[in-house]
Structures are given as structure tokens and as C-alpha cells.
Amino acid sequence: MGQALTLALTAALTCWLLRVSFWRWCRWMALPFGFLLVGVLTIVFSVSRDPQMLLASIRLGAFSIGISAPGLAVAGETFWRSLAAMAATLWLVLNLPFPQLIILLKRGRVPRLLTEQILLTWRFIFILLDEAMAIHRAQTLRFGYGSVPQGYRSLAMLVGLLFTRVLLRYQQMSTALDIKLYQGDFHL
């Protein structure tokens, strides 16, 4: 119940203070929802030798695969906790500039290695997005998404090309760090 309340409060604050429409907030929250759904579904289903322990089950040889009452309870708790965490993360991303986050992490005495990892992950996310947008723009200009089969082909090409281009960008960054005599510490 506490997680659902946190979710509702965070949603209300995000929509009201940041002037984001509720439907846009829902679309943003829907992006990682597929991952959450897969995770929760794996918690819901259980394997047991005794089908009486399961609320609904399918017999597969000596085992039964089905839904158990404790699995449903844990899945429900995990679902609401994860949604509340995603809403809080979205609030943080929309409300706090990244340089200020790094300053807060330093003041909070978060280990330097973790702060550097967060910084590098943040940079790589934007490298990935930049490359994906450039490839998608080029494909769209060449009518790469004119039909559904052509769109699937273009998407497959985008993923393959994105992987190689991100690896090239990583190698370029590594070379730049070597040229600057990188010793394992970033200036934060």
C-alpha cells in the first residue's frame, strides 16, 4: 500500500510541479513497463511437485507449473515497489540536472568508483541515443520505413549498425583517454 501511495504522490508532483501532462507521464512510465511485466510474470509462476500448493497449475511430468498464493503476493509487492521506484527515478531525471547529481553524490560521500560508473553510464546512454537517432534519421530520409517488412529490415539494420558504431565510439573514447594519460581517475 505504501508503494502505491508513493507512486501516486510522485505522479502528482511530477505532473503538477514540472507541468507534465498525466498522459505524457504515463507514456514515459510505459517505456520500462515491458521489462517490469516480464519480471513480475516470472515471480508469479512457480514450479512444484505438489499441485495442491498451487492455485492453478499445469502438469508437466512429475512437476506442476502454476500460480501460487505466495508468488502472487510477492509479485504484487514487487510490481508496486518497482513502479514507485521508476516514478521516483523519472522525477529525479526530470528535476535534477546531471552535474548537480554528481555534486550531491560527492557531498554524500558516495564511493568515487560508483560515481565514475554512473557518469560513464550516463555518457554512454547519450552516445547510444545519438547514434540511434542519426541512423534512424538517415534511414527515414532514404524511405527505410515505408512498409512494415521494410521497417523490420531497417530496424534490424539499425540494431546491427548501432552496435558497431557504439563500439567504434568506445574505442575512440579509450584512445582519447590514453592520449590524455588516463590513470584510472576522472576529474569529478
Automatic annotation (TrEMBL):
GO biological process: cobalt ion transport
Statement: the UniProt record of this protein carries the keyword Chaperone: no
Cellular component terms per the entry's GO annotation: ATP-binding cassette (ABC) transporter complex
Transmembrane domains' residue ranges: 29-47, 54-73, 79-98, 119-138, 150-168
InterPro entries in UniProt: ABC/ECF_trnsptr_transmembrane, Cobalt_transport_CbiQ, ECF_CbiQ
Record flagged with keyword Transmembrane helix: yes
Homology family: Belongs to the CbiQ family.
Record protein name field: Cobalt ECF transporter transmembrane protein CbiQ
Organism classification: Bacteria, Pseudomonadati, Pseudomonadota, Gammaproteobacteria, Enterobacterales
Gene that produces this protein: cbiQ_2
